[in-house]
Amino acid sequence: MRLRVPLPDPTVPGSTERPLQEAELVSILRNVTGGDLGSLALCAGVVLSAVAGAPALAERLRTGSDREAAAIVDELLRIDSPFVSNRRVATCPVTLAGQEIGAGERVVLHWTSANRDERCFGDPERRDPEGHAAANLVYGIGRHVCPGRPLATLELVVMVQEVLRAADLHAAPTRGEREVDPVGGWAQAPVVLTPR
Q1: C-alpha span between 54 and 185 (Å, rounded)
Q2: What's the mean pLDDT in 81-108?
Q3: What does DSSP assign to residue 135?
Q4: 90 with 73: CB under 8 angstroms?
Q5: Which CATH superfamily is 4-195 part of?
Q6: Residue 8 has pLDDT above 60, yes or no
Q7: Which of 55, 70, 76, 110 has its CA 20 to 30 A from that of 82?
């Protein structure tokens, strides 16, 4: 079985799909593996650290709906994104913020900066899960949206809800250690769990 994608194959007139190339398959597998392991660990640290310092938020996650919990998790990741940036290749010439970008040029999108843009979020530190949802770029957007978003969100919601059902969560007296660019979030996020 060969995986096919809905992209034109330039070697076949009128085609609407082509087989994935080896480099594309490797990239997809790398992203799936990275997203499954490292990304979720970074996200868990961000979510648990934020909740440990906010008892009212912990209560909303403990007693609210799964939908509300998912919106809260996304908002916490917007505010303290573990995903700093991503690369893209311009498909056509464009002028962005006065900068000319030619077709084929590589660009770096800074997710953290975009998720803190005051033109979209007003006060980017203020938590507004419902109000900020449409502009939140934690999982990408459009055809570049993370295909694992629903599963990642479900895993994070279940993780934080189960922790909060079993224990009260508090900030640890010791400081955590932030990750180093090109990733964000926490390398170590100490929290205190007190069994309920």
Answers
A1: 17
A2: 90
A3: G
A4: no
A5: Cytochrome P450 (1.10.630.10)
A6: no
A7: 55
What's the gap between Cα 144 and its chain centre? 12
Give the residues across from 108 on adjacent strands: 87
Q: Can you tell me the mean pLDDT for 33-60?
A: 87
Listed in sequence order, the DSSP H helices in the chain are 22-34, 40-52, 55-63, 66-79, 111-114, 118-121, 129-132, 149-166
| Cα first-last separation, the chain | 51
| pLDDT value, residue 134 | 87
More confident residue, 140 or 170: 170
Neighbours of 44 (CB within 10 A): 19
Give the Cα-Cα-Cα angle 58, 135, 159 (nearest 5 degrees). Answer: 30
CB neighbours (10 Å) of residue 48? 21
CA angle, corner 137, sides to 136 and 143, nearest 5? 125
Q: Is 100 helix (H, G, I), strand (E, B) or coil?
A: strand
pLDDT, residue 16, reads 66
Report the Cα 170 to chain-centroid distance in Å: 24
What's the Cα-to-Cα distance from 170 to each of 46, 51, 126, 162, rounded to whole Å? 14, 8, 21, 15
Tokens of 194: 């007190």
Residue 109, pLDDT > 70, answer yes
